[in-house]
Design brief:
Oligomer: heterodimer
Helix content of chain A: under 10%
Distance between the termini of chain B: 37 Å
Largest sheet of chain B: 7 strands, mixed
Number of helices of chain A: 0
Largest sheet of chain A: 6 strands, mixed
Number of strands of chain A: 11
Number of strands of chain B: 11
Shape of chain B: globular
Strand content of chain A: over 45%
Number of helices of chain B: 0
Largest interface: A-B, 26 and 30 residues
Radius of gyration of chain B: 13 Å
Order of helices and strands of chain A: EEEEEEEEEEE
Distance between the termini of chain A: 41 Å
């Protein structure tokens, strides 16, 4: 049974710092991995989808990497800003299409 | 950019009452989902819907839950007799293809359900 874990649960950094969020999964037979952003009381916004055949995917200051063999993905945020403060979730689809989520990392970027 | 819309944003109900949560998926999407997130817990899958029938449902999705696509645009989740433990944020999602392909899933902003 696929399980997704995110570490750390919370992170607080000063503005401008580069940071890495971690996601691990137990079953390496995945189609892709998706990173989402969730603002308090809001929905989920898809940030990046990295396919199983890819090692990296970039969007602006965000870079997601995927290492299937070790069951890990990282989300790298460059030059963090207070507006980046949110909860970041990673998720992988099962072979039936349902997404299995990690518990999220809550990021606070202090001005 | 097209988006998934959900109504209402907040719903308060008494235990034992029926509630209907409404969603309008992105218009050309074919796969529809409901997820929920109890406060402080993971987002968890409830049900997927394709071609006018349920594709998969979780253990949570018992006989008290049902989904319907009554017309070409709406997708609803009904809870027949709400329980206190149904209090959660409910998210609707849609995609053009199955999430088991390399297709992003688009989520609505959620309905916060509070059962008193």
């Amino acid at each position: 049974k696929q399980e997704v874990t995110q570490i750390p649960a919370a992170l607080s950094v000063p503005e401008g710092e580069n940071l890495v969020l971690n996601c691990s999964f137990t079953d390496s037979a995945i189609y892709n991995l998706q990173w989402f952003r969730q603002d308090p009381g809001k929905g989920l916004t898809s940030l990046l989808l990295i396919q199983s055949s890819q090692r990296e995917q970039t969007s602006g200051r965000l870079n997601a990497s995927l290492d299937k063999s070790s069951g890990r993905s990282t989300l790298y945020i460059a030059a963090s800003q207070p507006g980046d403060s949110a909860t970041y979730l990673c998720a992988v689809p099962s072979n039936t299409g349902k997404l299995i989520f990690g518990q999220g990392t809550t990021l606070q970027v202090k001005p | 950019e097209p988006e998934v819309t959900q109504t209402p944003s907040h719903q308060v109900t008494q235990m034992g009452q029926e509630v209907i949560l409404r969603c309008v998926p992105i218009s050309n999407h074919l796969y529809f989902y409901w997820y929920r997130q109890i406060l402080g817990q993971k987002v968890e899958f409830l049900v997927s819907f394709y071609n006018n029938e349920i594709s998969e449902k979780s253990e949570i999705f018992d006989d008290q839950f049902s989904v319907e696509r009554p017309d070409g645009s709406n997708f609803t989740l009904k809870i027949r007799s709400t329980k206190l433990e149904d209090s959660a944020m409910y998210f609707c999602a849609s995609s053009d293809r199955s999430a088991a392909t390399n297709e992003k899933l688009f989520f609505g902003s959620g309905t916060q359900l509070s059962v008193l």
